[in-house]
């Protein structure tokens, strides 16, 4: 007997009432997992680098991003008392559900942020019901963050929110620490709305720079501190206006965000920035009207409602489009995905707010450039060819987290095809090198892919943006790469990758991958076989291609030397964020020249199935034939 659908999957997600119901559908399944006094929520048994008590605190605290927003907007939730009782028990040293003392760099610091937010926006529900001793315990527990060492990253915002929450309920807090943290966080600012997630020398400008942490926090602060810190609040609002003009390009017409970087298991938090814009009453420049902002956020939520994101008990799973542990970070507990509740902040707004009164409008494709260079994050974003994707070079996390080379080092990331992470270290199917070039010097036993390219830059060549980088698979082997976006009305489904390999004396193999794609047939769900006119795979010298119900992807060798072999590989299951079973068109070179320079030129094709379509039959053939030309300036470089 089939399981009943999760209420979120049948929610139209059009109105404020719909969003309220959606939030309840996330909160209700947590009740059976909640401890007797409410302080701990244990959803699963997978581990993190921090202790189990902190993990269960995470399960308690993160849903507060949504619940507190609902309460701030005058909404009611029958289970609110679970969190009120939990706050009292978790901060009580004599309770068997006490969360424990905070140490340096403690995960407890992270979860103080939603608690501080709750006190600030919903004191009537979360603070006033507490008794005198309970309030004293909460104040002491939160204030413990003020004399502890913290990571020099967006974490500093968590201490800001702990102090801000205390200040809003008239409790003792540390105003000097609050100001010092804000002053230091402002040193992360790069300009044009962008902040890096860390000090100078760190080039990490992923969703933490926006929806996950920094921009979101700045906007909430600008609303809550408008009277006490007006100059800084207005500065944060101005940053949001500038940032929005770039960030809008991370979304597509169907509501999807481009998955990129770490913590993508936070899912709908990718779009939370747009809700924070509304919360802070920030009017954005055209074409980002209230109706457009509303559409971006609600379409994103509706897209998530169609994905397999819940466990059988109705709680959020760790994963992206389906449960998946391969791509997770060592700080992702079963409660971590509830950071996505940040997207529910419009519930803090009344029905009369312009966000809710506005008619939902489509993504403003006709009013945005089809190709745009974003210099701060070192991205070139394309809206051509039926999907939104970015070309990337130069970013890296401030520490080498799991699969960091896949999360930041790939050449391309797509809203339609996502990206893949390694599932193991033996065999190319486990390396899952989509949108990467991989090198081996031991006949394929191990492979090197790009992680760091610190000198990456965007240049305008013949009026078009080109992303240029250098990286070193080995200290004596240099790879210089040019990434060239599609050309409108010429070869819209193709982007070019050009690599100049300098190899002093190593026997090297290389493999370069296109986008990975869902790899099962519509007919019987079996793995794609030889192309039959509708679906399947085909290869020949210099070409590899695959077409399925998800669309079509391929790669074409345009190198000046010997052509590489085209293959379509079955990727190890669960490597890709979007599709659990994928295939990957690749170009293989078994024996690269051992000395001197070698040029490798690849044209990468992608055509996804869009909403309302069931296949790309009758479309992909024509677009495949509109192959790109190698730019003249590249040809000149190769002849030098």
Q: Would you give an account of this structure?
A:
The structure is a single chain. By secondary structure, the chain is α+β, with helices and mostly antiparallel strands. It has two domains: 10-366, Glycosyltransferase (Alpha/alpha barrel), CATH 1.50.10; 369-639, Beta-galactosidase, Chain A, domain 5 (Distorted Sandwich), CATH 2.70.98. Helix content is 28%, strand content 17%. It contains 18 helices and 19 strands. It has helices at residues 16-27, 52-61, 64-72, 80-90, 107-121, 123-126, 132-143, 156-168, 175-185, 214-224, 230-247, 272-279, 290-305, 354-357, 404-408, 428-431, 620-625, 632-639, and strands spanning 189-191, 194-195, 371-374, 379-382, 389-392, 412-414, 437-440, 457-461, 464-474, 477-484, 494-502, 509-513, 517-518, 536-540, 543-548, 551-557, 565-570, 582-589, 597-608. It has an eight-stranded antiparallel sheet. Strands 7, 12, 13, 17 and 18 form a five-stranded antiparallel sheet that branches. It has a four-stranded antiparallel sheet with strand order 3-4-5-6, with no helix packed on it. Strand 3 and strand 4 form a beta hairpin. Helix 2 runs parallel beside helix 5 and helix 5 (107-121) runs parallel beside helix 8 (156-168). It is globular. 54% of the residues are buried. Pfam families: DUF2264, DUF2264_C. InterPro entries: DUF2264_C, DUF2264_N, UCP014753.
